Each structure stands twice: as C-alpha cells, then as structure tokens.
Amino acid sequence: MAIRIDRRSFIVTGSIGLGAFAIPGFAQMPSVQAARGFTHSVASGEPSADSVLLWTRYVPVDEAAVHLRAEIAETADFARIVSGGVQISGPWRDYTAKITVAGLKPGTRYYFRFVAPDGSLSPVGRTKTLPAGLAPSFKAAVFSCSNLPFGYFNAYAHAALRDDIDLAIHLGDYFYEYQTGDYPALKDAVAGRQPLPATEIIHLADYRLRYASYRSDPDLQKLHSLVPMIVQWDDHESANDSWEGGAQNHQPATEGEWNSRRAAAIQAYREWMPVSDEPWKAYEIGTLATLFRTETRVLGRSKQPELAPLLFKPDPAKALAEFRDGSWQDPAATMMGSQQEDWLAHAMRASVKGGTKWQVVGFGTIMGNTETPLGAPSWLAPDADPRAKAYMNAGIAATKAGLPFNFDSWGGYPAARKRFLTSAQKMGANLIVISGDSHNAWAYDLGQDGKPAGVEFAGQGVTSPGFESALGVDPKIVAKALVEQNPELKWCDTSRRGYMAMTITPTKVRNDWIFVDTIKSPTPAASIGHSTTVLRGRNVMA
Fold first, then answer.
1. Strand 167-170 relative to strand 138-143: parallel, antiparallel, unpaired?
2. Pairing state of beta strands 246-247 and 242-243?
3. What's the average model confidence in pLDDT over 315-339?
C-alpha cells in the first residue's frame, strides 16, 4: 500500500474527534448563525493612492435584501464625509458588502463606517491609502498560517497595538478546513477555540460558517478594523495541498467533484475577505515599491510531485535519480500558469523601467532551496509519530539524490522557479520575495545560475506549529544544521510563532521576525527575534 508522505504528515499527530463550540473571550459560536445587524465589525483592503475597498456584514431581521451605505472621513467624528458608496447585499453573498470608495488623498489615514437602512451604524474602522511619489518609509506586517484551535491570535493583537503599520499582508492559510479533532488533535487544542462547523468544510455553507467563526475572533477583528489588509489564499482556504485539479485532503468518492468544492471555497473567500475578485494584482506604493499579489494554488498550479511511490521501488536511489533528472525538471510544471507568469514578468518589468525602487512579490509557499540535513533523524523525539519518521527518512533520501524536502512549495517546480528568477535578473529587479506556509521563519538569498536574484523573507505561522512539534532537540541545533546544509538559507527559526514586520525605504529593506511569548493564553507580549536588511542593488542580505 502506498504511503502519502507530505509536509503535513511531519507536523500532524492528531486523531479525529469532536470538541466544544465556544470560544472564550467572545460570542458563543452558535450565535454566529443567529446574529443580526452588523455581525463581524469592519475591514478594509485593496488600497491605492486614491481609493480603498471597505468591507462589512449586515444581516437584517427579515433576512431580505438590504442597502448599505459606506462613509469615509479624515476624522473619527465624521464631521466631513469625503467619499462613500452604496451596495445592495443579501443572502446570495452571505450579507457581506464590499464597497470601493474613491477620490481619496495619497498616504492618508481615514476613518470609515457603514450605515444600515434603519440608521444603525457599524463599528468605526480605520484605514490608509498608499503613498504617491517617493515615500521615505513604508511598513507592512506580514502574516500566514493562523489555526484557531492551536492557540490565541496574539500576533494579530501585537500588530494591532502598533501605530507604525501602514499595511497588513496575509499570505494564506487564513483558516484551516479540518474537522474538530484533526489538526490539532483534541489534546493539543486550546480549550474552547473550536470553529464551526465541527465537520470538515466542503460546501459553500461550510466555508461561509468557517469564515464567520474565525472572523469572530476579537484580535483578528481589531487588526482588520485598524489597517488595510492585502490578502491572498494558500491551500487551506480550500483543502490541504490543493492544486488545479484536486487536493491531498479531497476525496472525490465521498466529497464530490473538486471543481464544486473549489468554486465554493473561492466564492466564500471573495465574500468574506476585503479583496477584489481579481486573481492577481499589483499595488503601487508610490515609486518606493510595487507589491505583487499572486495566486499559486488552485487556478494554474500543476499537481505536486510525490516521492512516496519512488521510495517503494526496488532501487529507490535509482528511481530518485531518474526523477531528479527527468520529470522533476518538466518545464510544463507550473505554480502560476503561463498567463500569470507572463503578467507578472511584464508588470515587474514595468515597475523596474518606471524607476520604482523595489519589487516585492508575495507567494504562498517558500521559494528558497531547502534540503534535509543528513543528521536530521537524530532530532526526532523517541516517541515521535511514525509518520514523522517516514517524512524524515524521505527527506534524507531526497537530500542524497540532490532534491529538496518539500515538493508542495517551489521545490516541486524547479523550471518555473528558474523562469521567474532569471526574468527578475534580466530586468534588473530589486527583488524581495515574501512567503508563508511553512509555519517557520526563514531568510534566503535567492540565486540563479550562480548569480544573486533577490532575497526571501519567509514568515512563521500565527499559531500553526512548526518543526518543534515533532522534534526532541534544541531548536538551535536544528537551525544550525539547516543553514549549514543549504547555501541559500542564511537564518531560520523552527520553534516560535508570530509575524514579520517589513520596513521599506529607498535604499534598503529591513525585515523583523517578531515572536509572540505564547499562543496558549491571550497576551500581546512579543519581541523581535531576528532582523536582516538588504541594500538596493545588491539582491543579497547585508
């Protein structure tokens, strides 16, 4: 029998069960379905120099269609309304509303609210437009991998308390699709933080309810209400290890057609998130930087390679070598699809030719080359789950064959990676890649054909656990071995949760990895665990 070996197998040790519905600190989860009026506060996104998208959800008592009006002003008392808009919402869009307001001033903080037909007001939100021209500095908080049952969203809480954040960026895994008791196991879950529905989410109503549950978290609500957020999905917004034609965590025989589930996931995402319906987009931060939001999961991604079948061949080493020199190099294998690849190359080239200082590209998964150190089996705890041992052994076999340990990242698509980095080199980009997915923190100098191509700042999860969940050694030993094994990797942390804070200036970009003190109790306490900078024109970290 073939064994599926993937990244999740290394960090999952749970069993399936049922848990409580209540989340301490805010409304009981069943009330999510019965709530009326403004149910989930407000949010903003899609900022430009003169516009921003405003989001809310309002359910009328009679559950009929409703007209909602947005108002935006420069002061919290709304003494002078400077712009606004109106939208009709109803059950066809789960009573959510997204209104883009225009005619705003660049680099300006605004306050906004929604007005219901009965005159009731939403909570007041705060947002900010992007700058025009050469801004002296711009700071973004970067998040990924927020799993509600694993712990409190203290990373959101810490960022919300700051007054120096211009923009929040979420690189995916905003929520997780699993049923209660499956990642995390009940023994690893924080009491009471189990979202609805208790089952795995498959249908449109399931995805909507899961968003409603996550968006009931007070720290997430607060962050959304204070800064605009640019969001993109990774796999768990649909199903684990998703690709264009399916997912590891989707079984057509019992869960129906993948295309139906994918469509439901996309619809709910576009309803509940402060994001436009464009699958990918560029954001001009004046002439300081262009930020590119990408889609690397369910619209154009080819199926990930699998090592497991090769490991059960009569001669695994030979099978791995043939894979390395053959199908792994397939130029047809793609993360983005040819249309998006072409768009991104043209958009980045236009940014460079226009004199923009930095090109910042957000990907869901890590691009930096990462192999498993040969001594890694000694890291495992004596009672480590057999799946973790299998994953580790597979990683060692891959390393010996000159292969990375994760094929659900850019490691599974080397030809596509080469196309992207070669294009960035040829156009003279000052490339910053930001990524999530791994739950751990990483800093890479990205190279191609022996030359620098850019740097990558990969962020740790908000709550989702990293390598430490299955290892029995000091995390510093793990980090040291990983850096020694991988020339592109300059630093990593495999044991702490939090977020990144990236500061962009005309001459350099600094990235801080901020680690929260805990996720097991609600506290915003956090500190900078590591910082690095890249100077313009270098494409390597200083």
1. parallel
2. antiparallel
3. 98
Rounded to an integer, what distance in angstroms lies between the CA atom of residue 19 and that of residue 25?
A: 17
The upper half-sphere exposure of residue 295, i.e. CA atoms within 13 Å in the direction of its Cβ, equals 19
pLDDT number for residue 12: 31
Angle of CA points 248, 192, 9, to nearest 5°: 25
Starting at the edge strand found earlier in the chain, the sheet holding 81-89 runs 81-89, 66-73, 109-115, 125-128
Confirm whether pTM is higher than 0.85: yes
Rounded Cα gap, residues 433 and 446, in angstroms: 9
Tens-place pLDDT, residues 240-261? 999 999 999 999 999 999 999 9
Q: Which pLDDT tens digit goes with each residue over 465-505?
A: 998 888 989 999 999 999 999 999 999 999 999 999 999 99
Chain centroid to CA 359: 19
Q: If we measure between CA atoms, which residue out of 61, 125, 131, 120 comes closest to residue 99?
A: 125
Q: How far apart are CA 505 and CA 166, in angstroms?
A: 13
- Cis-peptide into 475, omega within 30 deg: no
Which candidate, 437, 451, 462, places its Cα nearest to that of 515?
462
Transcribe 90-101 into DSSP letters.
-GGGTTEEEEEE
Per-residue pLDDT of 332-360, as tens digits, reads 999 999 999 999 999 999 999 999 999 99
Residue 27: how many other CB atoms lie within 10 Å: 14
